[in-house]
Structures are given as structure tokens and as C-alpha cells.
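Morning. Coffee machine broken again, so started the prediction first thing and wrote up yesterday's gels while waiting. Chain of 257 residues, entered below exactly as on the submission form.
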Amino acid sequence: MADSAFDLAGRRALVTGSTRGIGAAIAAGLARAGATVVLHGRDPARTDQAREQLAAEVPGADVRSCAFDVADHAAVVEQARRLEGELGGIDVLVNNAGIQFRSPLTEFPLDAWNQVLSVNLTSCFVLAQQLAHGMLDRGHGKIINVCSLQTQLVRASTSAYAAAKSGLGSLTRTMCAEWAAGGIQANGLAPGYIGTDLNATLVADEEFSAWVLGRTPARRWGVPADLAGPAVWLASSASDFVNGQVIYVDGGITAVL
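Came back before lunch.
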């Protein structure tokens, strides 16, 4: 791997929401490619447990952990500055933490709307803004914003989530417009239907699962590991001329009618 454009040795990566699911799979992929990886979650004990598990899965990997609520934007700023100081900078930021809330538009609670946008969109802006200063000073950096099918397509009852993810796609392009000349590549990864612990009930729902399989050209649910390879690519020098793009990892859903 040492001579590969995909080698991440020497790079320091922070992956938010990485104690399980897609975030954990991306973190594992980055660690296997040689990066120093900082896992993140809200619960310190759970985050430490995830760190121990990943360190055992990838022998020799440098795995750290930090715990804070991405909806607490003051804490985001504090932790970003702390990590910059302790690690000497973050080279790769993966904004993955997110939440969902479902309700008809006519009944959508304003506090739930604000919470979804705070976690899924505003926190990505705040964390990227803080870490971009160091990236620009060093002349290089990678920002990977985990978007969604709902960056482009929508479903009923998920208005706040769709608005946040659509906004995240536009924010990604704005990061490119403002920071590309300073050596930062900002791109989005948009998962399709991925079988994670959080949507296990959907996977188990025969009617819904049949709809997913029929709508997905690959004829299967995705798995978290499907995001690891694209994330390594976007974090590596192999993607240095890729900027402002949203890469759909969806088994082909967005490519067909």
C-alpha cells in the first residue's frame, strides 16, 4: 500500500457518528488504509468501546476517540480545536453523524425540524469551518459529507431530513467553490438503502424490502462496507482533482427510472 495513491499513512481522520453503521465502516476502511482515525459518538463509554473494537480488528492501527454532541455547536468548536492541537491537525473530515424524524408536513414539530437541521446540516458547517482553517494553512485537506438519496430524491414524511441533506449537497459545492484553491477537496457520499442496525425494522419489513429490491438495479440492500472503498478514495490523493461532487453509492437507484 505504501506506493499506492490510496495510501492514507500519515493522514489524520475524524469520522463523526462512527460507533456503528456507516460511520464505523468508513472509519475501519480509513484505518486499514493507514490513517490515524478518531472515532466519534455522544456516549464516551460507547465511543471507547468502538475504539477498542476497531483497534483489535485492524492491528497496528492508530485509533483515537472523542465524545461530544454535534448538536451542541459550542462543543463542536471546542473539540475541533482540541483535536487540532493534540494531533497537529485533521487532514480528513467525514461528516457522518445524523438523525431522522418522520412526520407529515402539516404536523411536523418545529423543535424536531430544528433538531434535524442542527445535527444533519449545521453541525457539518460548524465542524468543517473550524477544521478548514488548519487545512488551508497546510495547503491540503479532504472533507467528505455523508449525504443521502434524499440529497436528490425525496420521500413523504421526511421533510426535515430531505431539506438537510439537500442543503448538505449544496454546502459541499460551496466548500469546493471557496476552498478548492487552498488545497481542500470537499465531496459528498450519498448512500442508498443500507442495511444498518438503525433501519433493521425496514429490512425485516417484507413489503418495504421488496420495494427496495425492486427499485434497486443491484437487487440487494447495501451494507455499510459498501461505503468504505469510496470513502478511502475520496480521502486519498487518488481523488485530488475530484471536488464538489456528490457520489451516489446506491446500487443504481438514481441512475434509472
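The chain has one domain: 12-195+224-250. Going to sketch it on the whiteboard this afternoon.
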